[in-house]
Structure formats: structure tokens, C-alpha cells
Amino acid sequence: MEKQLIRQIRTLAHKECCNYIDGTCIIHGCCTVINPRYPSIHDGTIDCDYFLECVLPINPELNRTVWAELLREEDLIRPDEKVCVCCGAPFVPGSSRQQYCAQCKPRHEQLRNREKQRNYYQRKQSNNE
Asked: How far apart are the C-alpha atoms of 127 and 129, rounded to whole Å?
């Protein structure tokens, strides 16, 4: 999860940041959005304040996920948010029983339907014998 999130942040910075030209940041001399010395986002991986304030809001889903990750350690996640059982990302559930975020729900439903079909065919085979 952490590596995928960092990859998405780096891609967004390279595509949308106006300070990123020809593979380098014109302010810092190299793109310092991600500081490689820190292994996780909680430790301060995102080094560029301009990116956090101006570029990250372009992608609302990524913005929400990054800020949830940044604030998770400090227990500042809103009380109406839940954590996805599959990927661990915070999300606002539509009902009290929802366990999966919008990205993981279709995959989980597909796996659940496959299992139900498998069980149905196994019961059908055992009844025919």
C-alpha cells in the first residue's frame, strides 16, 4: 500500500507540478517531493510543501488518501471514517455494515460470487451422485 501510494504521488508530481521541468525541480534542483531517506509517509516522506498545498488537491481521491495516511498516526481521522479490510485505506462508509472502500468492493464482490457459484456447483454435484 505504502509503495503504491508513493508511486502515485511521484507520478502526479511529475505530470502536474509546474516546478518540474525536464526531469528536475526548478526550485530544488532535483524533484524532492519524495524524500528517499524515510521509509513511510508518516516519517516525512513528502518533502515539498508546494506539492501538498497546490498540486495534491488536483487529484481529490489521492489527496484524501494521503492526508488520511499523514494524520492516521496522530489519531486525527474523523470518527465517521472506517479502515478498509482489504487495503487499509480510510473511507467514509455508506452504512454501518460496509467494510470495503470503493476500490476494493467490486473485487471482493467478484471473489464472493465466485465462491458462491463454486459451492452451488459442488452441492449440485453431490446431490446428483
From this structure: 6
